[in-house]
Amino acid sequence: MFHKTFRPLWAAFALASALAVPSSAQTPVVIQIDIENYAYYYADNPDYSKLAGTGQAAPPVSTKTFSSFIGLADIVRVNGKPVKGTWSIRATTTNYTPNPQPGQAIADTTRNFFVDWVWEIQQADGTPIGTIMATGMGFGPPPPGSPSGLSPTAASTMAITGGTGAFLGMRGQAGFSQITTTGRAASVAEDPSLRRTLGGGTRSFLLTLIPLTPPAVLSNSSGPLVLHSADFSQVSAARPALPGEILTVFATGLGPTNAASDPGQPFMASPLALVNSPLQATLNGSPADVLYAGGYPGTSNTYQVNLRLPADAQSGAAALQITCAWQPAALVTIPVGSAGK
Predict the structure, then answer these.
(1) How far apart are CA 127 and CA 120, in angstroms?
(2) What is the CATH topology of the domain spanning 2-26+214-336?
(3) What H or E segment, with its residue span, contains residue 90?
(4) For 232-254, how does the pLDDT look when each residue is reduced to its tens digit (9 = 90+)?
(5) Share of the chain above pLDDT 70, in %
(6) Where are the beta strands (DSSP E) in 101-228?
(7) Residue extents of the structural domains in the chain
(8) CB 28 within 8 A of CB 172
């Protein structure tokens, strides 16, 4: 545990940090976000006294070009992992097309909406993780360089313009990969508290994320800063990690902590600054149990992660990876010895 390792680790870390450098760069990562119960409410009633008051499904009066709406849905999964949260959309209908029908807008491009998207993501227990914002044009083909899984006709062309929490400073692009069930259009007269009861659409997004500060395992001239937790010596060919052993890893870019310090200020020793975002570790693709992850006292962007290697880890060079808020650090290689040696 952290309290038992603080003093000796500080001396070891202070010596190693003079040469320590991150082991990764800004590499884009693609994540999938799934939503359910998507309904969108057209601004079709100028009488404010009638807004959100109808206790049953209320279809919109009009969805013509230049009409506007606000929509929302429940975020239910990220990369298959159950989460909570809300996806919000603000849009104006454009109906751009090179071959317009009456009431559509002639244009060289094919886009249906001018839109803003916001994903506010929580862990399954409701703990906030962060928010991702995007703006652009809705529907139509994906832009060049997009993931192959985007819809060829409804992908949209959306620029990720920023984020909060674990996604502070995020850039990238986003689009629809799948529209399983079309969203439900409604009037702003409909009571939005009934959204889940009345139901709505099911969709998936692919987001290409370029983080401001990606997770990274620190390293020095001897290799990755991965230590034996028993005596804080660095894992090496002469002293390899062992199956089932507890190791301590030093990393950067793991984002906000529960005991929050002001940005740029050092982490405190009490209370412990536990990493706020979901964090996983793998060895050669197999899960390693994360026992502790927190900001290291006296530093502002260095974290200590204690993990237990899989009991069936194979001997030889092994790829260790840490992923935080679905953003993976670059793989680092550590030597693993045989059990019982």
Answers:
(1) 11
(2) Immunoglobulin-like (2.60.40)
(3) strand 84-97
(4) 999 999 999 999 999 999 999 99
(5) 92
(6) 105-106, 111-122, 128-138, 157-165, 171-181, 184-187, 201-210, 216-220, 223-224, 226-228
(7) 2-26+214-336, 29-128+177-209
(8) yes
